Structure formats: structure tokens, C-alpha cells
Amino acid sequence: MKRSRLIGNAMLLVAALLWGTTFVAQSEGMDHMGPLTYQALRSILGGLFLLPIIALSTSFKKKHKLYTPPSREEKKKTFLVGVLCGIVLTVAALLQQYGIALGTESDKAGFITALYIVLVPIFGLFLKKRVHPTVWAAVAIAVFGLYFLCIQGDFSVLPCDMVTLCCAVVFALHIITIDNLAIKLNGVAISTIQFFTSAVISGIGMLIFESPSLSSILSGWVSVAYAGILSSGVAYTLQILGQQRTDPTVASILMSLESLFAVLGTIVFTAAMGAPSLPTAREWIGCALMFCAIILTQLPDILKRRADA
Questions:
Q1: What is residue 190's predicted lDDT score, i.e. its pLDDT?
Q2: More confident of the two residues 276 and 247
Q3: Does pLDDT of 277 surpass 70?
Q4: How would DSSP label each residue in the chain?
Q5: Is the pTM of this model over 0.85?
């Protein structure tokens, strides 16, 4: 495996870990404020968190004579891609929140949302993106793994679930957008613009449809801070940087591991509270299937390396 792809996959794994551990914080935060308020606040924090990182990175590169000023065309494209990613991300996040609010259970929402791992390679076919047969097999195994991880009872599709399915479609479009438009651009800059775009859209919606209060925001500030800095500022930036280095279908499978990390995060959290909640047999099967899927995604690179040896 090329070093660049290995680094990209590691970034996506860290992003999935952060998203998985955000489920508890997100659930707690939504007890205090509406989805538009929550999305606006976490997006503002994500963007503000990245601004000093951009400044420090630029300063470091200039000091060591590694800095190449972006052209006017690059700046324009970075801005437009960032705004587009921000719009798509906002729609996806709000569809997920409203799907849950309308009645989709959180475990089912996690499974339906993660179906973007199927949609990404399907959308890629329309863009002439070839997917290796073993990766298709990995996608199928990952879907079964997600089912065992997320669905504990009978699975039935309700009208509210269709809203959550739309969320999966939009998340797939977000991945495809990054893969096709952001590859040679400044990933951190795109992420920053993405968050401020999301903050503006969600903020306008918040003022129109919700009535946030300072007391409710202060009550959920820990959740918002965690989601804004780690889940947004760090994880979504790692998604862009990781996707710039690896295949979009492989990236989608790696990011879907957030469901697995959510299970593991629950174990750690409940253990810290003195009453550990161990995985069920279904969840152990789901974990095993997800790990098999990840191994399968690496098989084409292994075979290629042996053929070139």
C-alpha cells in the first residue's frame, strides 16, 4: 500500500472514531436545543477552531520556505468547493436530525445513514469510477455488519425512515463531491469554509424556526464543544484530507466504522460509570464482519503489490 493511502486511511479511521464517540454527546446536546441551533453552534466552533491552524501552518511553511501562494483560480475554486460541501453537509446533518425527531430510532438511524457505503460506489459508476470486485464484496459484508451492530429487533421501514434514507443519499453526495472536486486543493481551507457556510445556513434557519435561549445553550455547552471541535473541526477535516489520499468507496467503508466505535465507546463510557454494558452476540458478529470488510478493502493493493514484485 502506498504511504499516502496508508496515511489517508489512518485519518479516516480517526474521523470514524471521533464520530462514533460523538453519539452520546450529540444525544445529550439535543435535549437542550433544536437541531438548527445545535448545527449552527457546532459549525461555528468547527470553523473557529481551524482558523488558527491555517495561520500557524502558513507561518510555518513561510518560515521554512515551503509556502507557495495559491493562485487566484485556486482561491476561487477552494471557496466554491467549500461552500458546496457546506451546503451538502448541512442538508445531510439536518435530515438525520429531523429523521430521528420524527420517529426513527437512533440505532436504526445509524444503520440507514451508513448505507452511503452502498450508494457511493453506485454513484461512482455514473462518473466512470471502477470498483474492484473484492471491494464490492467488502461493501456487502459491511452492510451486514452494520445491520448486526445497529439493529437489535425487527427491522421495518416507516415514513420517518425515508427522511433518514435521504440523509444517507446526501452524505454519499458529500463524499463524491470531495472526491471529485477537492483532491488538489487545500483541505483545511475547504473544511473551514464548509463549517462557516453550514453555520450561516443553520443560523438563519435557527432564527426563523427555533427560539434558542442562552440558558439552554449553556446547559448543552459541553456537548456542543465536543461536537464542534472534535467531531466537526477535527473529524470532518480529516475526512477531506483522508479522501484526498484514498479511494472513495474504501473511504466510505472506513468512515462507516463510526457505528463500531459507537458500540465500543458505550462500553468505555458505561465502564467508567461503574456499570459496563458489554456487546451482545449480534454486536460481536457485527464487529467481526466490519473488520473482515476492512481487510477485504486492502486486498486489491496487496495483490497489485505482489504482482509488481
A1: 97
A2: 247
A3: no
A4: --HHHHHHHHHHHHHHHHHHTHHHHHHHHTTTS-HHHHHHHHHHHHHHHHHHHHHHHHHHHHHTT---PPPHHHHHHHHHHHHHHHHHHHHHHHHHHHHHHHT--HHHHHHHHTTHHHHHHHHHHHTT----HHHHHHHHHHHHHHHHHH--S-----HHHHHHHHHHHHHHHHHHHHHHHSTTS-HHHHHHHHHHHHHHHHHHHHHHH----HHHHHHTHHHHHHIIIIIIIIIIHHHHHHHTTS-HHHHHHHHTTHHHHHHHHHHHHHHHTT---PPPHHHHHHHHHHHHHHHHHHHHHHHHHHHH-
A5: yes
